Amino acid sequence: MTAQLAAHSGSLAADAGALLAAYSTSTGEAVQFWILGTVAVIGALCTVLMKKSVHSALCLAGTMIVLAVFYLANGAYFLGIVQVVVYTGAIMMLFLFVVMLVGVTAADSLKETIKGQRWLALLCGLGFGILLCAGIGNASLTEFEGLAQANAGGNVEGLAALIFTKYVFAFEITGALLITAAVGAMVLTHRERTERAKTQRELAEERVRANKQLPPLPAPGVYARHNAVDIAGLLPDGTPSELTVISTLRERGQIRDVSDQAIKDLKALEQRSGERLGREGREEEAAK
Amino acid sequence: MNPVNYLYLAALLFTIGASGVLIRRNAIVVFMCIELMLNACNLAFVAFSRMHGNLDGQIIAFFTMVVAAAEVVVGLAIIVSLFRSRHSASVDDASLMKL
Amino acid sequence: MDNLIALLVAAPLLGAAVLLCGGRRLDAVGHWIGTVLASASFVIGAILFADMLGKDEEHRAIGQHLFSWIPVEGFQADVAFQLDQLSMTFVLLITGVGSLIHVYSIGYMEHDERRRRFFGYLNLFLAAMLLLVLADNYLLLYVGWEGVGLASYLLIGFWQHKPSAATAAKKAFLVNRVGDMGLSIAIMLMFTTFGTFAFGPVLEATGETGEGKLTAIGLMLLLAACGKSAQVPLQSWLGDAMEGPTPVSALIHAATMVTAGVYLIVRSGEIFNAAPDAQLVTTVVGAVTLLFGAIVGCAKDDIKKALAGSTMSQIGYMILAAGLGPIGYVFAIMHLVTHGFFKAGLFLGAGSVMHGMNDEVDMRKYGGLRKHMPVTFVTFGLGYLAIIGFPGLSGFFSKDKIIEAAFAKGGTEGWILGSVALLGAAITAFYMTRVMLMTFFGEKRWQPDEKGNEPHPHESPRSMTIPMIVLAFGSVFAGGFFGIGDRFLHWLEPVTEHAHGHPPIGATAITLSTVTVMIVGVGLAYLQYGRRPVPVVAPRGSLLTRAARRDLLQDDFNHVVLVRGGEHLTRSLVYVDHTLVDGVVNGTAASMGGLSGRLRKLQNGYARSYAVSMFGGAAILIAATLLMRAV
Hints:
The complex is a heterotrimer.
Chain A: H1 2-14, H2 27-49, H3 53-73, H4 77-102, H5 117-138, H6 155-163, H7 168-189, H8 200-210, E1 233-234, E2 240-241, H9 247-252, H10 261-276, H11 278-287
Antiparallel strand pairs in A: 1-2
Helix pairs in contact in A: 2-3, 3-4
Chain B: H1 4-23, H2 27-52, H3 56-86
Chain C: H1 4-22, H2 30-54, E1 62-72, E2 75-83, H3 85-108, H4 115-134, H5 138-156, H6 163-194, H7 199-204, H8 211-229, H9 237-240, H10 246-255, H11 260-267, H12 269-273, H13 276-299, H14 303-323, H15 329-356, H16 374-388, H17 394-408, H18 411-440, H19 462-483, H20 487-496, H21 507-530, H22 543-549, H23 554-600, H24 607-630
Antiparallel strand pairs in C: 1-2
Helix pairs in contact in C: 1-2, 1-4, 2-3, 2-4, 3-4, 3-10, 3-15, 3-19, 4-5, 5-6, 6-8, 8-11, 8-13, 10-15, 11-14, 13-14, 13-18, 13-22, 14-15, 14-17, 14-18, 15-16, 15-17, 15-19, 15-20, 16-18, 16-19, 17-18, 17-19, 18-21
């Protein structure tokens, strides 16, 4: 698709000279814009409105790919590729990793807690959008020159020429910025161990002194239909024990309670067998 | 079609992103909305580049991507450490800066 | 010879420094040191005078530049002296009368344990007064002006244990401040107008300056003169100043310091010549004070206060003459000198009477003292004849000239001023005759005081009588010496200029009428106080008498208008401050507080709220940009 678009743009560049005064795109690009533009807007809206952050991330990735296509359509071949590779590939994956850390299944409540925040946000958003569109409409942007001349020697070569001449200092500084960011991220997430790690023996002794849980923690409950790590084991009286689930899941509130599952299943079974044996039952009633 | 429509699309995406920043409480989603805004800007830059017939707009978009990458790295690190200490990724929980 | 000028000031200044810093070990000889140094100043003055007489008229003025006081670019103030005929007249008067009064004080202050300090103050006064008349610029004159004010304050309040004396000193100081304000403003105006303070350049430049500025300067100088010379409306301090020792009253509040205002006006003659409005105000002030002082003098039973009223009135004559311009300057100074003689003599006589009467000042308790104090009686009597203008004595020549000059002013003004001056002469004769009759004639009216001490009137010691005799000589002969052949006129003319006035009626007629009104005044007083015994307790008197006893309500006026007015002004200002200023300030603070309390709610700590305001701000920025583009 990319190659096709590139060729498309190339053909555009060919008639650019004739269309300097009143520039208009080809019908193909127009069709592509309206279809993919709709997809991009829907993706953006879903990013904002999805309850689960993993869905948001996926929608955003979709929007970004659409944008990559638009970059290609606009003659920015290098950026289009970079958009797919860096943004959609690297950055969005980073997001997904963090989402996994926070909890994939955790759903946000969309209920507003700050009074008037949503209304203000909508008002500002509407006003801002209308003003921005008014500004674009107000500016006389009818004349498009097209990139035929600039891309004549190849888009990547053209960018490289600019980066290593005109923008070389900015380029170097962004390099420094990336290194700083990497170091910063490490500093932020790295937790220095301030004391010696406790040995098994010490942990055991500690546990005995505290006299809280002398035997090893109970294993999670086993429920054959699921990956059962998030299911609390049942105590002899049938109540679930949270001790059996690892603390991370406990903190996320991702414990599934299946303590009444067996009873529900049994009830369903009885009902089903009852239905199946309905006739017999009626016969019995009749016999009475 | 006039290519100025790309600019309208960019404005629309930017506004949606900004509204998302204001509405969502999950720090990760807020961050995604910021990325959306940055991408909208990039689209505008690329459209402008085409409009003026030179590559400076694309260069700026390129730099924006680099800066966005750095920003995402640091921002996500912050979110992770925040989540570690508070066990929550809600931006409203970090509301100590009030009188 | 020029270098002697500084010595004139230095001698009494040295005396003041030695006496005031010397401490008690100088108590025994302090009065001699003071007297010798004052006399030394007089001797130097006499030598300079002789030297001056030896030169021709054109070259008589000499000067001495001591050092540069404030040498700043564009602001040159020098300590430099100028000795011309006018200054010389004052130097001789000040040092001469001053030395006599030093001698007199030796006897008068004999029993005062703080006599050394008294002589120190007297020397300080002499130094300051000499500085005032010798200065060659207004700034140095101002130093002397303040110096005599200080000395006057210290000497009025010399008996500081008496509350009345302490209050009187404060009153004199405060009222004088008002006048000093005028002088300082005048000096500032001079500097902005002429760029200098020196007499020479300032007075030469008057020709090219606008009349408005000169009028302002003249009026400010007049205000200064009013303060120092006790002229209406700043006259109220002089009567109370009589709380000081009598030699002080004689020297400072009769002969010398109070005439500094006249000196100032005559010295600044060119300014007044070019500002007719200021001159007119000056004559009015002089005429009003002339009558004011005379009326007050008629009603007072305190011998010193009666004389103080007389002093005010006589200085009124001088100011009137000075206000007349070139036709009056010389006569103002001439009257000033003769007045210095006879008024100092009268005060010393009054002091002598008090000395013999256990410091009693009420004339109603005197009577028939001529037999007990013959020398005092004769000298006082000669002074009396001089002041009422008895033909042939000092006052006759000088006062007659002033009345002539007043008439010579011309027009309605001339008639009014001349008539006022004539009326003043009649009242002068009346109240001085009254003083004379009540003190030295009639029956004795003194009684033992509450402790049973009956006064034994006696003649004063020789140290007191000799100065009185010398001054009596001056009272008798000075006027004739000056007046006959216009000797004084020729002496002073090079400095002050002189224009011969032409009164609308003949000079002889004026002289005759002056003598006539004098006789009428004496006669009336004789009818009132000579033929009938004087009551020991003052009768209630007419409304005017009662008002005059209260100094024509001057203090009441000051109290009602200035003190009360000031109180009301401050109260209303305080009210405005409390309600308006504080209201605005506190209101601003309160509204700010309220506003902040509301705005505080915006700071809820939620990053998303802050983001909304940022986003809204961005929207507003875009709107503004679009608006600007549209416009």
